[in-house]
Amino acid sequence: MIRLLPALPLLLAAYIPCSAQQVIYSEDFEGAAPSFTLNTPDMGSVVAGDNTWLVNNAYTGGQGTLECFGIPFSFTIPNTAAQPAGITSPNGNYMHITSVAAINSGVLNCNFAAADGLCTNAASHFARMSADISTAGASDVTLSFWWICAGSTDNYGELYYSTDGGTSWIMVPPALGAYRNQSSWVQQDVTMAAFAGQASLRFGFRFVNNEATAASDPAFGIDHVSITTTSQTAALVTGALPSSTYCPGSTLTVPYTATGTWDTDNIFTAELSDANGSFGAPAAIGSVTSSTSGSITATIPVGTPTGTGYLLRVVGSDPAIVASNTQAITVVEAPYAGEDHHVSYCSNQGPQLLLNEFPGASPCGSWTSPDGSAMTGVLDPSTAPAGGYTYTTNCPGDCPQDAAVLVVGIVAAPNAGDSASITVCTNDPSFSLFSELGGTPDAGGSWALLGTPQSGVFTPGTDPEGCYLYTVAGISPCTNATAVVCVEVVNCTGIDEQTHGWPGLRWLGQQGDVQLIDPGKGQPDKVNVFDPSGRAVAANFHVEGQVLTLNMGDAASGVYMVRLTKGTKTAVVRVVQQR
């Protein structure tokens, strides 16, 4: 609120009988280095312009000239009103606005060049305290200053305060509009609850110079600035917290001790600083209406950033007192189990680490399977049941734990069977390629040869030989399964032993794994071996003198036909393979 200084003792006597006043700041601008910084850019103000803040003891006006569009205009500046005896060092130094045109003409008293939109620009000019003061423990804080400003509706002074070192400013509305229409010095006292209990408090003055057609000197002038606090006999102390580490969302009990006299409607509020320990914009985390000692149930706000520099304090409202001590606390990240969701695995996939499905989850936790039994968190899709797997955090500290459910679906992998290779005769009957697959393939797949769809029924002598691809489609996340049946077609005519035309050709028997043949009087260029059905059998031959050795490898026991070829002459001899 705003009130005049003569009424202050009466109000204090009426409502706070036990109190003590103390002047904690005073500036009369008589020192070599005033505690105000002039012409700052705060609140959109200009550092240099058509007007400027000065500190001097000039009160005498004078004549001057202002050039506009190359044309000189003369002006007359009246004297600034003399100061009354209530000001410390009356008619001494004071802080005030002076126009640059006046300065250039040697006139340095309180005056301004009104903005006319042509030769003088509309602008604001800011002057601020150079350092913070603390009002911690004060119930009432009063700013007192003497001011003068005639100005106009568009040209006036303003008062601001800051609680964060001048980073941001809040305007204090005057009782009767802006600071203007005052050609003689007058004292102003301003008392606001927001001034009390601040670790960092400072004030600033701004002169606003908008466009005007009628304006009067003097401009905005300030002198004898002081700040007075009223301390109550009441006192407040924040008690020890049960822990020094909390999480966003944690609930805590904040004890406090209140001594002295407190109003019955007083509210004790627990406040949390920012991560750097600043109470410039404290967060109220709990409160209680009380006039005695007790405790406050408080909650660390959800979303509070982690940090080790937080402070906690208790503040009373009536009287306005901040606890004389603060509690240091650390805000840590709350345990996080992840977000509930669903995932599917194919039954032929390898073991899965379930925690990978919860990105960002705290690693301090345990898993339970769908039946409630404990499990390691590694799931084998080939054997594990489908259902909900629960992850529950068990992290150290007093923070609330968290849990999340991963619903797992198991999809059966497709089976195309085992690949096979067969040899058929051109005169064999049609047959199903599916029946040639090994293992236990799934029915209903598709057949293709070199990318061309096939029916899956092979007709020797008609269909082309080759490797036929069988594909069973997989359901996501399973991929398709494939196998091949490679078919070779031979001309099976039935082979009889034919030695005529090749004198002396005869079988000499088997020695170990090698068949021995007497080629007679012919030395073959080529040797082919066939089983009883006429299918070709792989074999290697070698002729040494009058003996042809034939190695048939792993051919099964049975009767085989050996065909020898030299030029256009052909002969066949029968051999018996024993394994």
Main features:
579 residues, mainly beta, Jelly Rolls, Immunoglobulin-like, six-stranded mixed beta sheet, 2 helices, disordered N terminus
SSE layout:
Elements: H1 8-15, E1 19-27, E2 36-40, E3 51-56, E4 62-68, E5 71-77, E6 94-99, H2 100-104, E7 123-129, E8 140-149, E9 155-162, E10 170-172, E11 182-191, E12 202-209, E13 221-232, E14 235-238, E15 245-246, E16 251-259, E17 267-272, E18 283-289, E19 294-299, E20 307-317, E21 320-322, E22 327-331, E23 341-346, E24 352-353, E25 365-368, E26 374-375, E27 378-379, E28 387-393, E29 403-411, E30 420-425, E31 431-432, E32 446-449, E33 452-454, E34 457-458, E35 466-472, E36 481-490, E37 505-511, E38 514-519, E39 526-530, E40 536-537, E41 540-544, E42 547-551, E43 558-566, E44 569-577
Parallel strand pairs: 15-22, 23-29, 30-36
Antiparallel strand pairs: 1-13, 2-7, 3-6, 4-5, 6-13, 7-12, 8-11, 8-13, 9-10, 9-12, 14-16, 16-19, 17-18, 17-20, 20-21, 20-22, 24-27, 25-26, 25-28, 28-29, 31-34, 32-33, 32-35, 35-36, 37-38, 38-42, 39-40, 39-43, 41-42, 43-44
